[in-house]
Write a structure and sequence with these properties.
By secondary structure, the chain is of the alpha/beta class. Helices cover 40% and strands 16% of the residues. β5, α4 and β6 form a beta-alpha-beta unit. α8 packs across α9. The radius of gyration is 22 Å and the shape is globular. The two termini are 16 Å apart.
Protein backbone atom coordinates (compact mmCIF):
# COMPACT_ATOMS: atom_id res chain seq x y z
CA UNK A 1 0.00 0.00 0.00
CA UNK A 2 1.37 3.43 0.97
CA UNK A 3 4.44 4.84 2.69
CA UNK A 4 3.80 6.54 6.05
CA UNK A 5 5.97 9.09 7.86
CA UNK A 6 5.58 9.73 11.61
CA UNK A 7 7.01 13.00 12.92
CA UNK A 8 6.43 15.64 15.59
CA UNK A 9 7.27 16.47 19.19
CA UNK A 10 8.34 13.05 20.46
CA UNK A 11 11.62 11.31 21.34
CA UNK A 12 11.70 7.99 19.55
CA UNK A 13 11.88 5.10 20.32
CA UNK A 14 11.45 5.27 24.10
CA UNK A 15 12.36 8.77 25.28
CA UNK A 16 8.86 9.78 26.41
CA UNK A 17 5.24 8.66 26.74
CA UNK A 18 4.50 9.87 23.20
CA UNK A 19 6.94 7.32 21.78
CA UNK A 20 5.15 4.53 23.59
CA UNK A 21 1.89 5.62 21.94
CA UNK A 22 3.44 5.90 18.48
CA UNK A 23 5.23 2.56 18.78
CA UNK A 24 1.89 0.87 19.39
CA UNK A 25 0.28 2.69 16.48
CA UNK A 26 3.14 1.64 14.19
CA UNK A 27 2.84 -1.98 15.34
CA UNK A 28 -0.83 -1.98 14.31
CA UNK A 29 -0.16 -0.40 10.89
CA UNK A 30 3.11 -2.11 9.98
CA UNK A 31 1.64 -5.29 8.41
CA UNK A 32 -0.63 -3.26 6.11
CA UNK A 33 1.69 -0.60 4.67
CA UNK A 34 4.72 -0.82 2.36
CA UNK A 35 7.06 1.18 4.56
CA UNK A 36 6.93 3.28 7.71
CA UNK A 37 9.51 5.98 8.43
CA UNK A 38 10.00 7.89 11.68
CA UNK A 39 11.37 11.43 12.01
CA UNK A 40 11.41 11.80 15.78
CA UNK A 41 12.61 15.03 17.36
CA UNK A 42 15.10 13.31 19.68
CA UNK A 43 18.80 14.13 19.67
CA UNK A 44 21.19 12.11 17.48
CA UNK A 45 22.57 10.05 20.36
CA UNK A 46 22.63 6.73 18.52
CA UNK A 47 25.18 5.58 15.96
CA UNK A 48 23.58 6.25 12.60
CA UNK A 49 23.71 4.16 9.43
CA UNK A 50 25.21 6.32 6.64
CA UNK A 51 25.12 9.12 9.21
CA UNK A 52 21.36 9.39 8.58
CA UNK A 53 19.19 6.83 10.37
CA UNK A 54 19.05 4.02 12.90
CA UNK A 55 16.81 0.95 12.86
CA UNK A 56 14.18 0.21 15.50
CA UNK A 57 12.22 -3.01 14.95
CA UNK A 58 13.27 -2.78 11.28
CA UNK A 59 11.79 0.77 11.02
CA UNK A 60 14.10 3.46 9.62
CA UNK A 61 14.32 6.31 12.12
CA UNK A 62 15.81 9.70 11.18
CA UNK A 63 16.39 11.75 14.37
CA UNK A 64 15.89 15.49 13.79
CA UNK A 65 17.34 16.93 17.04
CA UNK A 66 14.54 19.49 17.37
CA UNK A 67 14.07 18.97 21.14
CA UNK A 68 16.41 19.34 24.13
CA UNK A 69 18.77 21.81 22.44
CA UNK A 70 20.78 23.83 24.94
CA UNK A 71 20.17 27.38 23.75
CA UNK A 72 22.12 29.87 25.86
CA UNK A 73 21.07 33.39 24.88
CA UNK A 74 17.52 34.75 24.93
CA UNK A 75 17.68 35.27 21.16
CA UNK A 76 18.71 31.64 20.60
CA UNK A 77 15.88 30.40 22.81
CA UNK A 78 13.38 32.59 20.96
CA UNK A 79 14.58 31.37 17.56
CA UNK A 80 14.62 27.74 18.68
CA UNK A 81 11.05 28.04 19.92
CA UNK A 82 9.60 29.86 16.91
CA UNK A 83 11.36 27.77 14.25
CA UNK A 84 11.12 24.40 15.95
CA UNK A 85 10.54 21.83 13.22
CA UNK A 86 12.57 23.65 10.54
CA UNK A 87 15.09 20.79 10.22
CA UNK A 88 12.24 18.32 9.83
CA UNK A 89 10.56 20.34 7.06
CA UNK A 90 13.85 20.55 5.18
CA UNK A 91 14.38 16.80 5.59
CA UNK A 92 10.88 16.03 4.25
CA UNK A 93 11.32 18.32 1.26
CA UNK A 94 14.68 16.76 0.41
CA UNK A 95 13.23 13.27 0.77
CA UNK A 96 10.31 14.10 -1.51
CA UNK A 97 12.72 15.10 -4.28
CA UNK A 98 13.81 11.46 -4.62
CA UNK A 99 10.94 9.40 -3.20
CA UNK A 100 7.24 9.59 -2.38
CA UNK A 101 5.39 9.77 0.93
CA UNK A 102 1.65 9.18 0.84
CA UNK A 103 0.73 9.82 4.48
CA UNK A 104 2.23 11.99 7.24
CA UNK A 105 1.21 11.54 10.89
CA UNK A 106 2.28 14.51 13.01
CA UNK A 107 2.23 14.43 16.82
CA UNK A 108 1.36 17.59 18.83
CA UNK A 109 3.29 19.91 16.48
CA UNK A 110 3.99 23.64 17.00
CA UNK A 111 1.73 26.11 15.18
CA UNK A 112 4.15 27.54 12.60
CA UNK A 113 5.58 24.13 11.76
CA UNK A 114 2.03 22.80 11.32
CA UNK A 115 1.04 25.58 8.90
CA UNK A 116 4.14 24.91 6.81
CA UNK A 117 3.51 21.16 6.90
CA UNK A 118 -0.10 21.66 5.76
CA UNK A 119 1.19 23.67 2.79
CA UNK A 120 3.85 21.07 1.98
CA UNK A 121 1.33 18.22 2.09
CA UNK A 122 -1.00 20.10 -0.27
CA UNK A 123 1.87 20.72 -2.68
CA UNK A 124 2.79 17.02 -2.88
CA UNK A 125 -0.76 15.64 -2.48
CA UNK A 126 0.07 13.97 0.85
CA UNK A 127 -2.65 13.03 3.33
CA UNK A 128 -1.95 14.67 6.70
CA UNK A 129 -3.04 13.26 10.07
CA UNK A 130 -2.85 15.11 13.39
CA UNK A 131 -2.31 13.04 16.53
CA UNK A 132 -3.57 15.32 19.30
CA UNK A 133 -3.04 14.29 22.92
CA UNK A 134 -2.76 17.52 24.94
CA UNK A 135 -4.30 20.89 25.57
CA UNK A 136 -1.66 22.51 27.73
CA UNK A 137 -2.66 24.65 30.68
CA UNK A 138 -1.02 28.09 30.51
CA UNK A 139 0.17 27.77 34.11
CA UNK A 140 2.18 24.68 33.13
CA UNK A 141 4.05 26.53 30.39
CA UNK A 142 7.14 28.77 30.73
CA UNK A 143 6.29 32.45 31.41
CA UNK A 144 2.68 31.60 32.31
CA UNK A 145 -0.58 32.80 30.81
CA UNK A 146 0.77 35.71 28.76
CA UNK A 147 4.09 34.16 27.75
CA UNK A 148 5.01 33.23 24.19
CA UNK A 149 4.42 29.44 24.70
CA UNK A 150 0.87 30.12 25.97
CA UNK A 151 0.12 32.37 23.00
CA UNK A 152 1.49 29.76 20.59
CA UNK A 153 -0.58 27.08 22.33
CA UNK A 154 -3.73 29.21 21.91
CA UNK A 155 -3.04 29.73 18.20
CA UNK A 156 -2.37 26.07 17.47
CA UNK A 157 -5.48 24.82 19.27
CA UNK A 158 -7.94 27.47 18.05
CA UNK A 159 -6.75 28.26 14.54
CA UNK A 160 -4.16 25.78 13.22
CA UNK A 161 -5.10 22.24 14.29
CA UNK A 162 -8.73 22.61 13.14
CA UNK A 163 -7.44 23.13 9.56
CA UNK A 164 -6.38 19.45 9.41
CA UNK A 165 -8.94 17.05 7.94
CA UNK A 166 -7.80 13.84 9.67
CA UNK A 167 -7.45 13.88 13.45
CA UNK A 168 -6.62 11.20 16.01
CA UNK A 169 -7.66 12.43 19.46
CA UNK A 170 -6.63 10.84 22.72
CA UNK A 171 -9.89 11.78 24.49
CA UNK A 172 -13.58 12.39 23.93
CA UNK A 173 -13.04 16.00 25.01
CA UNK A 174 -10.61 16.71 22.16
CA UNK A 175 -12.69 14.71 19.69
CA UNK A 176 -15.79 16.78 20.51
CA UNK A 177 -13.79 20.01 20.36
CA UNK A 178 -12.46 19.33 16.85
CA UNK A 179 -15.91 18.22 15.66
CA UNK A 180 -17.27 21.66 16.54
CA UNK A 181 -14.20 23.69 15.61
CA UNK A 182 -13.14 22.08 12.33
CA UNK A 183 -13.13 24.21 9.18
CA UNK A 184 -14.45 21.16 7.29
CA UNK A 185 -17.85 19.54 7.89
CA UNK A 186 -16.58 16.10 6.80
CA UNK A 187 -13.67 15.81 9.22
CA UNK A 188 -12.29 12.27 9.60
CA UNK A 189 -11.77 11.45 13.29
CA UNK A 190 -11.01 8.64 15.70
CA UNK A 191 -10.59 8.49 19.48
CA UNK A 192 -7.47 6.51 20.35
CA UNK A 193 -6.51 6.40 24.05
CA UNK A 194 -3.19 5.00 25.22
CA UNK A 195 -3.17 1.30 24.38
CA UNK A 196 -0.80 -1.35 25.72
CA UNK A 197 -0.62 -5.11 25.93
CA UNK A 198 -0.39 -6.81 29.33
CA UNK A 199 3.11 -7.33 30.69
CA UNK A 200 4.44 -10.49 32.28
CA UNK A 201 4.25 -9.59 35.96
CA UNK A 202 6.49 -11.05 38.62
CA UNK A 203 4.93 -11.86 41.98
CA UNK A 204 4.59 -8.66 43.98
CA UNK A 205 5.61 -8.47 47.64
CA UNK A 206 2.78 -9.60 49.91
CA UNK A 207 0.44 -6.70 50.60
CA UNK A 208 -0.10 -8.10 54.11
CA UNK A 209 3.51 -7.16 54.92
CA UNK A 210 2.94 -3.52 53.93
CA UNK A 211 1.60 -1.40 51.07
CA UNK A 212 3.89 0.04 48.40
CA UNK A 213 2.68 2.94 46.24
CA UNK A 214 4.22 4.35 43.07
CA UNK A 215 4.14 7.58 41.11
CA UNK A 216 6.33 8.19 38.05
CA UNK A 217 6.20 11.62 36.42
CA UNK A 218 6.55 15.37 36.88
CA UNK A 219 5.19 16.48 40.23
CA UNK A 220 3.41 19.80 40.36
CA UNK A 221 2.51 20.09 36.67
CA UNK A 222 -0.27 17.88 35.32
CA UNK A 223 -0.47 15.65 38.40
CA UNK A 224 -1.33 16.74 41.93
CA UNK A 225 0.28 14.23 44.28
CA UNK A 226 1.36 16.56 47.09
CA UNK A 227 -1.83 16.11 49.14
CA UNK A 228 -1.40 12.33 49.04
CA UNK A 229 2.23 12.62 50.17
CA UNK A 230 1.22 14.83 53.11
CA UNK A 231 -1.49 12.29 54.01
CA UNK A 232 0.99 9.38 54.31
CA UNK A 233 1.65 9.69 58.10
CA UNK A 234 -2.11 9.60 58.77
CA UNK A 235 -2.53 6.67 56.37
CA UNK A 236 0.20 4.74 58.19
CA UNK A 237 -1.29 5.48 61.59
CA UNK A 238 -4.85 4.46 60.67
CA UNK A 239 -3.93 1.32 58.70
CA UNK A 240 -1.31 0.31 61.27
CA UNK A 241 0.91 -1.28 58.64
CA UNK A 242 4.16 -0.30 56.87
CA UNK A 243 3.72 1.95 53.82
CA UNK A 244 6.21 3.23 51.26
CA UNK A 245 5.62 5.66 48.38
CA UNK A 246 8.13 5.19 45.53
CA UNK A 247 8.39 8.42 43.51
CA UNK A 248 10.26 8.42 40.19
CA UNK A 249 10.99 11.78 38.55
CA UNK A 250 12.19 13.84 41.51
CA UNK A 251 15.11 13.64 43.93
CA UNK A 252 14.90 13.99 47.72
CA UNK A 253 16.31 17.50 47.40
CA UNK A 254 13.64 18.51 44.87
CA UNK A 255 10.96 16.97 47.08
CA UNK A 256 12.17 19.00 50.06
CA UNK A 257 11.86 22.17 47.96
CA UNK A 258 8.32 21.20 46.87
CA UNK A 259 7.04 20.32 50.35
CA UNK A 260 9.04 22.69 52.51
CA UNK A 261 11.44 21.45 55.20
CA UNK A 262 8.82 20.91 57.92
CA UNK A 263 6.45 18.79 55.80
CA UNK A 264 9.35 16.92 54.21
CA UNK A 265 10.73 15.90 57.62
CA UNK A 266 7.26 14.65 58.58
CA UNK A 267 6.88 12.35 55.55
CA UNK A 268 10.49 11.42 54.76
CA UNK A 269 10.29 7.95 56.31
CA UNK A 270 7.34 7.07 54.06
CA UNK A 271 8.80 8.09 50.69
CA UNK A 272 11.63 6.97 48.44
CA UNK A 273 12.58 9.49 45.73
CA UNK A 274 14.39 7.83 42.83
CA UNK A 275 15.02 10.83 40.54
CA UNK A 276 14.64 10.35 36.78
CA UNK A 277 14.61 6.67 35.79
CA UNK A 278 14.70 4.77 32.52
CA UNK A 279 11.45 3.16 31.42
CA UNK A 280 12.81 -0.30 32.33
CA UNK A 281 13.50 0.81 35.90
CA UNK A 282 10.05 2.43 36.19
CA UNK A 283 8.49 -0.86 35.06
CA UNK A 284 10.54 -2.64 37.71
CA UNK A 285 9.14 -0.25 40.35
CA UNK A 286 5.59 -1.04 39.21
CA UNK A 287 6.31 -4.74 39.65
CA UNK A 288 7.19 -4.08 43.31
CA UNK A 289 4.28 -1.71 44.02
CA UNK A 290 0.69 -2.49 44.99
CA UNK A 291 -1.01 0.76 43.92
CA UNK A 292 -0.12 3.66 41.64
CA UNK A 293 -1.32 7.15 42.57
CA UNK A 294 -2.78 9.61 40.07
CA UNK A 295 -4.68 12.77 41.02
CA UNK A 296 -5.42 15.59 38.56
CA UNK A 297 -7.15 18.93 38.93
CA UNK A 298 -10.61 19.35 37.43
CA UNK A 299 -9.37 21.54 34.59
CA UNK A 300 -9.44 21.47 30.79
CA UNK A 301 -5.95 19.96 30.42
CA UNK A 302 -7.00 16.94 32.50
CA UNK A 303 -10.18 16.38 30.48
CA UNK A 304 -8.33 16.81 27.18
CA UNK A 305 -5.55 14.35 28.00
CA UNK A 306 -5.46 10.70 28.94
CA UNK A 307 -2.73 9.53 31.34
CA UNK A 308 -0.20 7.00 30.08
CA UNK A 309 0.46 6.22 33.76
CA UNK A 310 -3.05 4.77 34.12
CA UNK A 311 -2.66 2.24 31.32
CA UNK A 312 0.96 1.48 32.20
CA UNK A 313 -0.10 0.70 35.78
CA UNK A 314 -2.90 -1.64 34.74
CA UNK A 315 -0.66 -3.43 32.24
CA UNK A 316 1.56 -4.26 35.25
CA UNK A 317 -1.44 -5.55 37.27
CA UNK A 318 -1.24 -2.52 39.56
CA UNK A 319 -4.55 -0.88 40.60
CA UNK A 320 -4.75 2.92 40.59
CA UNK A 321 -5.77 5.36 43.31
CA UNK A 322 -7.23 8.33 41.44
CA UNK A 323 -9.97 10.95 41.20
CA UNK A 324 -12.74 10.83 38.54
CA UNK A 325 -11.48 13.23 35.84
CA UNK A 326 -12.03 13.04 32.07
CA UNK A 327 -11.95 9.72 30.24
CA UNK A 328 -10.44 7.97 33.27
CA UNK A 329 -14.01 7.25 34.39
CA UNK A 330 -14.68 5.25 31.20
CA UNK A 331 -12.17 2.60 32.26
CA UNK A 332 -11.55 2.90 36.01
CA UNK A 333 -14.06 1.13 38.26
CA UNK A 334 -14.04 1.61 42.01
CA UNK A 335 -13.25 -1.61 43.84
CA UNK A 336 -12.37 -3.38 40.60
CA UNK A 337 -9.22 -1.91 39.03
CA UNK A 338 -9.12 1.35 40.99
CA UNK A 339 -9.83 3.29 44.14
CA UNK A 340 -11.73 6.36 42.91
CA UNK A 341 -12.07 9.15 45.47
CA UNK A 342 -12.87 12.85 45.53
CA UNK A 343 -11.60 13.21 49.09
CA UNK A 344 -8.14 11.93 49.96
CA UNK A 345 -9.33 10.79 53.39
CA UNK A 346 -11.53 8.13 51.76
CA UNK A 347 -8.43 6.19 50.69
CA UNK A 348 -7.84 4.72 54.15
CA UNK A 349 -11.28 3.07 54.35
CA UNK A 350 -10.84 1.59 50.89
CA UNK A 351 -7.41 0.13 51.68
CA UNK A 352 -8.62 -1.19 55.01
CA UNK A 353 -11.44 -3.04 53.20
CA UNK A 354 -9.01 -4.44 50.62
CA UNK A 355 -6.79 -5.84 53.37
CA UNK A 356 -9.61 -7.23 55.48
CA UNK A 357 -11.43 -8.89 52.56
CA UNK A 358 -8.34 -10.16 50.71
CA UNK A 359 -9.44 -8.29 47.56
CA UNK A 360 -6.04 -7.43 46.16
CA UNK A 361 -5.49 -10.45 43.91
CA UNK A 362 -8.95 -9.91 42.43
CA UNK A 363 -8.11 -6.26 41.68
CA UNK A 364 -4.90 -7.32 39.94
CA UNK A 365 -6.89 -9.64 37.69
CA UNK A 366 -9.35 -6.84 36.88
CA UNK A 367 -6.48 -4.52 35.89
CA UNK A 368 -5.20 -6.91 33.26
CA UNK A 369 -8.74 -7.72 32.16
CA UNK A 370 -9.31 -3.98 31.54
CA UNK A 371 -6.20 -3.83 29.34
CA UNK A 372 -7.12 -6.99 27.45
CA UNK A 373 -10.77 -6.06 26.78
CA UNK A 374 -10.64 -2.25 26.55
CA UNK A 375 -7.13 -0.84 26.11
CA UNK A 376 -5.04 -3.30 24.11
CA UNK A 377 -3.79 -3.08 20.52
CA UNK A 378 -6.26 -5.73 19.37
CA UNK A 379 -9.21 -3.66 20.60
CA UNK A 380 -8.32 -0.62 18.45
CA UNK A 381 -6.52 -2.19 15.47
CA UNK A 382 -9.61 -2.46 13.23
CA UNK A 383 -10.81 1.04 14.15
CA UNK A 384 -7.40 2.55 13.38
CA UNK A 385 -7.10 0.73 10.05
CA UNK A 386 -10.59 1.89 9.07
CA UNK A 387 -9.65 5.47 9.98
CA UNK A 388 -6.65 5.26 7.63
CA UNK A 389 -8.86 3.91 4.83
CA UNK A 390 -11.07 7.02 5.14
CA UNK A 391 -8.23 9.56 4.89
CA UNK A 392 -9.07 12.82 3.11
Amino acid sequence: MAKILFTGAFRFPDGDAASLRLNNMINILKPYYDEILVCGWEQKNKSLIDNQFYLHNSIKCFPQAELDNNSTTLLEKFGSFIYKGERTLNWIENYLKKDAIEIVVVYNPPALFTLQLISLCKKYNIKLILDSTEWYDSSHLPMGRFGLPAIENFIRMHYVYPKISNIISISHYLNNYYSKKSYRPDINQIILPIVLDCQLVAEKPSIDQGINFIYAGNLGKKDNIIDFINYLPTLHQQLNCPILFNIAGVTFSQMRDLLGSENFDRVQTYINCHGRLSRDKVIDLYSKSHFSVLFRDDKRYAHAGFPTKLVESWSMATPVICNPIGDITLYAQHGENACIVNDITDVVKFLDDVLKNNQYKYMQQQCQKTIDLKLSNKVYSNQLLEFFRRLK
